[in-house]
Specification:
- Its EC number is 2.7.1.11.
- Its cofactor is Mg(2+).
- It is a single chain.
- By secondary structure, this protein is α/β, with parallel strands linked by helices.
- It has eleven helices and eleven strands.
- The strands form two sheets. Strands 3-2-1-4-5-10-11 form a seven-stranded mixed β-sheet, sandwiched between helices.
- Helix 4 (107-120) links the parallel strand 4 and strand 5.
- Helix 1 runs parallel beside helix 9 (266-284), helix 5 crosses helix 6 and helix 6 packs parallel to helix 11.
- The chain is elongated, with a radius of gyration of 22 Å.
- 47% of the residues are buried.
- The mean pLDDT is 93.
- The protein binds adenosine-5'-triphosphate (ATP).
- Adenosine-5'-triphosphate binds next to helix 4.
């Protein structure tokens, strides 16, 4: 009897990020090239409960590298956080003959993968897909570069109206627990300041801004605020400033979900392609419970536990860069 080919399951989970499709394409095509079968699991871990599992051939991933979002859809899945739920998920995986999983997502997705892989001694390789860039062990996550470019383009447009009306704008960007988008978005768009969750309190940062004077010789100012309980968000910061400094013509703009969308940048497509290919090499290498990371342009295997538990350090010197370059 012919020996059954090994089968790799692939899913995207958590928040969507531009470039996930490029990763799905790379995983699928590298797996097929190395003689694996591929099964796509739809809607993240939910697909393991609804049995939304479809065999993938090379044509299933044609013409998707340039598309934002994820063709596999994504969902949050409460069932997977329970032991009983994960048992059902394992039963489905066994039933469908899946021998290993590649999961693409953020912190939560990798946390779930780690627990499942440990409980069932099941090989899983993770790919970091999140616009927040907040995973330890990798210089970049898939989607971050595209989101950063989207922010930059939006702020450029807001700058036109801010300058014309001589206004002070607080622009809120995503980044619940991490200020990478706010910090680098501020540098890329020439903003006057960034308020990020990593710095103790937003009051400290605001005080610093006010001390230095928002406007100086300028006729508009832009402050990028990370959406986060630590910063309170752009609305909150704007209210504080309006109260203390009624002379400023303050406006708020919340960029919201547009930051997740759009065709991935070349950087994200390349990153996703390399990481997708590397995920299959990791499995061929008998690696398990690792996330694919990239550091100094080299692919690395990062144990899930490290990627999840460690905080990724942010370069605080960049706040100073923003300050100096906006004088
Ligand atoms: P993003 O960073 O974009 O929010 P994420 O992967 O962190 O993406 P989450 O919603 O936190 O998104 O997690 C995705 C899914 O991973 C959850 O819906 C759940 O199914 C699973 N998951 C998260 N945390 C756990 C956990 N502690 N145990 C088991 N599964 C988990």
């Amino acid at each position: 009897m012919a020996k059954r080919k090994k089968c790799i399951g692939i899913l995207t989970s958590g928040g969507d990020a531009p470039g996930m499709n490029a990763a799905i394409r790379a995983v699928t095509r590298t797996a097929i090239y190395h003689d694996f079968d591929v099964k796509a699991v739809y809607r993240g871990y939910k697909g393991l409960f609804n049995e939304e599992i479809v065999p993938f051939k090379t044509q299933n991933v044609s013409n998707i590298i340039q598309q934002g979002g994820t063709i596999l859809k994504t969902a949050r899945c409460q069932e997977f956080t329970t032991k009983e739920g994960r048992q059902l998920a394992f039963d489905t995986i066994t039933k469908h003959g899946i021998d290993a999983l590649v999961t693409i997502g953020g912190d939560g997705t990798l946390t779930g993968a780690r627990i499942f892989a440990t409980e069932y001694n099941f090989p899983i390789v993770g790919i970091p897909g999140t616009i927040d860039n907040d995973l330890y062990g990798t210089d970049r996550t898939i989607g971050y570069d595209t989101a950063l470019n989207t922010i930059m383009q939006a702020v450029d447009k807001i700058r036109d109206t801010a300058t014309s009306h001589e206004r002070l704008f607080f622009i809120e960007v995503m980044g619940r627990d991490a200020g990478f988008l706010a910090l680098n978005g501020a540098i890329a768009s020439g903003a006057e300041a960034a308020i990020i969750p990593e710095i103790a309190t937003q009051e400290d940062q605001l005080e610093e801004l006010i001390k230095n004077g928002f406007r100086k010789s300028k006729n508009s100012s832009i402050v990028i605020v990370a959406e986060s309980p630590q910063t309170g968000g752009a609305m909150h910061v704007a209210e504080l400033v309006k109260k203390e400094h009624p002379q400023y013509d303050v406006r708020v703009s919340i960029l919201g979900h547009m930051q997740r969308g759009g065709s991935p940048t070349a950087n994200d497509r390349i990153l996703a392609s390399r990481m997708g290919e590397a995920a299959i090499y990791a499995l061929l290498d008998d690696q398990r419970n690792v996330m694919i990371g990239i550091r100094n342009d080299q692919i690395e295997y990062v144990p899930f536990i490290k990627a999840i538990k460690n905080d990724k350090p942010i370069n605080r010197d960049l706040l100073n860069t923003i300050r100096i370059l906006s004088t």
